[in-house]
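#struct-queue
[09:14] JT: dropping the first one here, sequence first, then the structure tokens:
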Amino acid sequence: MTEPAKTLAPIICGINDVITIKDAVAETRLSEKTIRRYFKKFRLGRQTYSNAPLRISKPGLMMVVHGDFEALEQLRAGNRHHPSVLRYFDALGIPA
């Protein structure tokens, strides 16, 4: 996997494209530990305060799972209509 930059801009998540850690585990069949590591390493969503639930960008998580870091950077830049980003939104049935 490519190492992300030290300071990453947050991914702006819409109401329809966030999932909980429990849902992320079920969707990806990865361990909760792995999901938490990805969340932290790639800044895949938000946690409003300490001990608050994680709200994970489902498209962002899928991009990491598939190793598509170019699409992840487009998403992070707010380019939700970029073809490489739209692939994920379309596949997940989420409006961009």
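[09:21] JT: and here's the second one, same format:
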Amino acid sequence: MTQEMSTTIAPDAAPARLKADIYETAGGEAYVIEIPVPGLNSDEIGIEVESSTLTVSTQPQATELEAGRRYLQREQSVEPMSRVFEFPTEIDTDRVRATLENGILKIHAPKAVAAPRTVIRIRQERHSNG
């Protein structure tokens, strides 16, 4: 007698989304986002940056199921996912860096440097009358 396992999926279940830890560096000069992406390669991950938002998307490559494999339960997502991260201050889009190590995507997003205060001197032009 073979017994089948079943998993009930609620129809109103929210779609899977990337989970993340987000923090500021010790000096407060940058934000760091750490996202677990087990099994993904760097070419399956996309990052787009704007002045105050960063979007991470994944596009897992389809893997062929092994012949004869009958899943009892499958929890590892093979669906594309994406998430938008909004920052309270602008970030320097030219200096954002990302690394992928041991299944963790780590994004370092430096804050944009505000222009220093500048004092403008006004020159008085003298008109000649003559």
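[09:30] RK: nice, looked through the second one.
[09:31] RK: Residues 21-61+78-110 form a domain with the Immunoglobulin-like fold (CATH 2.60.40.790).
[09:31] JT: good to know. Confidence is low (pLDDT under 50) at residues 1-11.
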